[in-house]
Amino acid sequence: MKILVAISNVPDTTTKIQFTDGDTKFNSQGVTFVINPYDEWYALVRALELKEANLAEKVTLIHVGLVDSEATIRKGLSLGADDAVRINAEGPDAFFVAEQIANYAKANSYELVLVGKETINYNGSSVGAIVAGLMDLPFISLATKLELAGTKATIEHDVDGGVQIVECDLPLVISCAKGMAEQRIPNMRGIMAARTKPLTVIEGSGSSALTSVKSYALNPGRTTCKMITEDNLDELVSLLHTEAKVI
What are the chain's domains? Predict the structure, then answer.
C-alpha cells in the first residue's frame, strides 16, 4: 500500500505578521517557514508508523508551492518519508491546492491520502474534504486514531460529546488531529539521507482559483475592560446599548 501525505509550508508560530500591497498580500520577507504542525506531527508521523509496522510500503509527500518551499519538504523527508512531489504552483486557494493533490493521487493510485486537520495560517480545514470529493472517496475528518488491517481502516474521530469509531474500506482520505501520533525530531542520519531522496517537480494543472483575497487585517488584540459594580446595573445596561460590539 502507498500513502500520500500532503504537507503545507506555513510561517513559524513566532512570526510577526505583516501585510503589503495595501493589505492584500502576506509579507514573507525574513519569515521562517515550517511544515504545518498538523501535517507533520500527526499525518506524516502516523504514515511512517504504518510503514514501520509493515502495513505500508511507501510514504510520499506532496506539496503545492514554489521552489522556496523545498527546505520544508526536505524536513519531511528527513523524518523518514521515501520521496516527495512538489507541484510547481503558488496555491492561491484551498480548491486549487486540493485539485493538484487529487489529480496526482488519482494518477498514481494511492490507497490512503492523509492531511493535517487544518493549516495554522488559514485554519480553513477544507483541503482534505475537497480532495476526497474530487476523488469520489470516503472522507473522515478530525481523526485521532487510525489502524489498518488489510484493505480495511478503523478510525476514531471526535464528535460532539464523545468519540466515534468508523470502519471503512480503502482507498480513502483522512484529516488527522491531535492524538493520531506523537511528534518526532529528525536525527542526523535522516537529515543526511533527505539530501539525496527523490523530489520530483511537476507543473500545476486544472482549474484556476475559485476565491481571491480582498484584504487582510490584524487581530485588534485585547482592549481595555470596564468594570461595573454589581449595584450599578443601569450603567451596565447603558454600556451594552451604546458601546458593546458583537464580534
Answer: 2-216 (3.40.50.620)
Query: Can you spell out the DSSP letters for 145-169?
Result: EEEEETTEEEEEEEETTEEEEEEEE
pLDDT (tens digit, 0 to 9) for every residue of the chain, 247 residues total? 999 999 999 999 888 888 988 888 888 888 889 999 999 999 999 999 999 999 999 999 999 999 999 999 999 999 999 999 999 998 889 999 999 999 999 999 999 999 999 999 888 899 999 999 999 999 999 999 999 999 999 999 988 889 999 999 999 999 999 999 999 999 999 999 999 999 999 998 877 788 888 898 887 777 778 888 888 888 889 988 888 766 5
pTM of the model: 0.86
Amino acid making up residue 172: L
